Amino acid sequence: QVQLVESGGGLVQAGGSLRLSCAASGRTFSPSVMGWFRQAPGKEREFVAAITWRGGTTYYGDSVKGRFITSRDNAKNTVYLQMNSLKAEDTAVYYCAAGYGYRWSSMSAYDYWGQGTQVTVSS
After folding, report:
1. Which of 4, 22, 66, 122 has its CA 20 to 30 A from that of 49?
2. 63: helix, coil or strand?
3. What is the CA radius of gyration of the chain?
4. What's residue 27's pLDDT?
């Protein structure tokens, strides 16, 4: 069984930065892809970013491209989301996910989900 635990959320002013972490545990952890999604109140869960576990290829949603960077540390079974130039509209609960699918921007590609961490950006 794989468990994912996010950390690093909090309150930040617009224009500021935050770094989220997602630590994975499990006997054999080797997903194809790790993803980040977010969900704001009253809205559907939205794709943010993804990174392949072996090659480190990254893919971003249009709303965060150029501002967010995802990376991974395979030795630590951890993936990161560096969020820069934050805007009020980035306020949401951020979830990390692990999976084996190929449609990285789709929730259907992911089998395991973390509990989420709140990010609030004040304007």
Report:
1. 122
2. coil
3. 13
4. 73
Given a contact cutoff of 8 angstroms between Cβ atoms, the answer to whether 6 and 18 are in contact is: no
pLDDT band at 30 (very low <50, low <70, confident <90, very high): confident
DSSP 4-22: EEEE--EEEETT--EEEEE
Q: Give the whole-angstrom CA distance, residue 45 versus residue 39.
A: 4
Any idea how long the chain is? 123
Q: Cα-Cα-Cα-Cα dihedral of 35, 102, 43, 112, to 10°? A: -50
Q: Is 105 exposed, middle or buried (0-12, 13-18, 19+ CB in 10 A)?
A: middle
pLDDT over 80 (residue 57): yes
Beta strands in 2-116 (DSSP E): 3-7, 10-13, 18-25, 33-39, 46-52, 58-60, 68-73, 78-83, 92-99, 110-113
Sequence letter at residue 72: R
Average pLDDT over the chain, rounded to an integer: 96
Alpha carbons 123 and 78: distance in angstroms, whole number: 30
Record the tokens describing residue 8, joined without a space.
């690093």
